[in-house]
Amino acid sequence: MSRPVWRKSSSDADATGVEVAVIEGVVTVRDAARPYEAVLVFDPERWAAFTAGVREGDFDLEALTCSAGDGSGVDAACVAPGSTLAGL
């Protein structure tokens, strides 16, 4: 297996953002400042939904509506109403 090619946003001049690579057909995301720690893994459908949500502002702090769901007080879902991700 070849080494992944990690890309990061051109607007991220320092090493504080995230990096993205496609590895064996899945999209992986890692913390640029901690490249040897855990990565997030998305199948192509969920990655497309996530990036669409970012472009549409679904993750803007003012737009988020969080709910605990199970009564534990821990946020189980934090998705903007009408979000691209709401159906996943």
Structural account:
This protein is α+β, with helices and mostly antiparallel strands and 88 residues long. The chain has a domain of 42 residues. Helix content is 15%, strand content 24%. It has 1 helix and 6 strands, in the order ββββαββ. The strands form 2 sheets. The chain has a 4-stranded antiparallel sheet. A two-stranded antiparallel sheet has the order 5-6. The longest helix is centred in the middle third of the chain and has 13 residues. It is globular, with a radius of gyration of 15 Å.
TL;DR of this structure?
By secondary structure, the protein is α+β, with helices and mostly antiparallel strands. The protein is 15% helix and 24% strand. The radius of gyration is 15 Å and the shape is globular.
Outline the secondary-structure elements.
Layout: E1 7-8, E2 18-23, E3 26-31, E4 40-42, H1 44-56, E5 66-67, E6 77-78
Antiparallel strand pairs: 1-2, 2-3, 3-4, 5-6
- How is the main sheet built? 4 strands, antiparallel
Low-confidence parts lasting 5 or more residues at pLDDT below 50? none
- Form type: globular
The overall average pLDDT, rounded, is 77
- What percent of residues adopt helix (DSSP H or I)? 10-25%
Largest sheet, spatial ordering of strands: 1-2-3-4
Structural class: alpha+beta
- Rg, rounded, reads 15 Å
